[in-house]
Write a structure and sequence with these properties.
The structure holds two protein chains of two kinds. By secondary structure, chain A is α/β, with parallel strands linked by helices. Chain A folds into two domains: 60 residues; 196 residues, Rossmann fold, CATH 3.40.50.720. The termini of chain A are far apart. The model of chain A has no long low-confidence stretch (mean pLDDT 96). In chain B, a hairpin with a 2-residue loop joins strand 3 and strand 4. Classes of the chains: A alpha/beta, B mainly beta. Chains A and B meet through helix 5, strand 7, strand 8 and helix 9 of A and strand 3 of B.
């Protein structure tokens, strides 16, 4: 059966790419879901067409690694919503999204997929629906709950990377220690006004010496800082999964878009 | 009387300075500097470094130290 599917993929592909339409055709023909067809396709070096512009930055082999990876995003407001879209477009095969919140009008300045139409809807439910429109073959697991690190850490155990997209220093700090204890990859990001801070696989006690909220309470979270931060975190996640480049390990990146300062501590 | 360099970052610069040279009494701690500047009155302190190393607020300043103060960044 798998051999027949491979043959069909090779027959329909064009220049080592296969379209969603053809994936669906094969899926119907063999009564196997599109996700499994894409997996078989990637295994023989045929890339789904949606990833064409990922290449050659991301090779077909890397694309398969991403497909087989799981990333847990804790907090799906500003950072989490944009990170989730980035990861969906780049081709992470499995996302775990955790957030208790519903969209409100004051989210519209920055939060992905927030709109007047979506006010009152659960953020993770909207995200899942919209992300599957972009990439119907990824697996998205949602948990509508307030994340309590000690109680809910088990939800993250199958992930390759845990993403801190939370907005509460106390929870961020606790999550960073749990990630370290369980030897999980951990990508931290936070913003306030024009400022951002990022680090990978570090605990956060030097950034959060007290657990009260930060400057964001006074200076807010504008859209450009959020999308900038989401991009930095996304690239940290990819580098961890693909084992390429250099991560923000044993350092902290402090950014200030107002004065174009990018400082490694 | 240690002479030190104080570097402020992000919103802490507003109405203050980016870099300044200051002279303090012997025994002055980073906590005293933070209070004197009033930086943490509104925006909580995040990173506190002396000579590129994280320190706590009880660090006693020495001649030639460079102190760096960042507001806490916690938004998502």
């Amino acid at each position: 059966m798998k051999e027949k599917i491979r043959k069909k993929i090779l027959e329909l592909c064009l220049d080592e790419f296969i379209s969603m339409e053809d994936v669906k055709k094969i899926s119907n023909l063999f009564s196997i879901n599109s996700r499994d067809i894409e997996k078989i396709s990637l295994e023989i070096g045929i890339t789904p067409f949606r990833y064409k512009r990922n290449q050659a930055t991301i090779s077909p082999k890397m694309q398969l690694t991403l497909f087989n990876s799981c990333v847990a995003i804790v907090g799906c407001g500003g950072l989490g919503g944009h990170i989730a879209e980035n990861l969906t477009r780049v081709g992470i095969g499995h996302l775990i999204l955790i957030d208790f919140d519903t969209f409100e009008e004051h989210n519209l300045n920055r939060q992905n997929f927030s709109s007047y139409e979506n006010i009152g809807k659960k953020k993770v439910a909207v995200l899942k629906e919209e992300l599957l429109k972009i990439n119907p073959t990824i697996k998205i697991e949602t948990h509508i709950k307030e994340f309590i690190p000690k109680e809910d850490f088990y939800l993250l155990k199958k992930s390759n990377v845990i993403v801190d997209a939370l907005d509460d220093p106390k929870v961020k700090l606790e999550l960073s220690f749990l990630a370290k204890n369980y030897e999980k990859n951990f990508v931290h990001g936070a913003i306030a006004g024009f400022s951002g801070q990022f680090c990978t696989n570090s605990t956060l006690e030097n950034l959060y010496r007290s657990t009260d909220k930060g400057a964001e309470i006074f200076v807010g979270n504008p859209s450009f800082s959020v999308t900038f931060a989401a991009s930095i975190q996304t690239s940290e996640i990819l580098k961890l999964i693909l084992n390429i480049g250099q991560n923000l390990e044993d350092t902290v990146l402090m950014t200030n878009l107002l004065e174009n300062e990018f400082i490694l501590l | 009387m240690p002479k030190v360099t104080i570097k402020l970052f992000a919103q802490y610069r507003e109405g203050r300075f980016k870099v300044a040279q200051k002279e303090y009494k012997d025994g002055t701690t980073t906590k005293d500097v933070i209070e004197e500047l009033g930086v943490a009155e509104k925006l909580p302190l995040g990173v506190l470094m002396v000579n590129s190393r994280h320190v706590d607020e009880n660090y006693v300043l020495k001649e030639g130290d460079t102190v760096a103060l960042f507001p806490k960044v916690g938004g998502g």
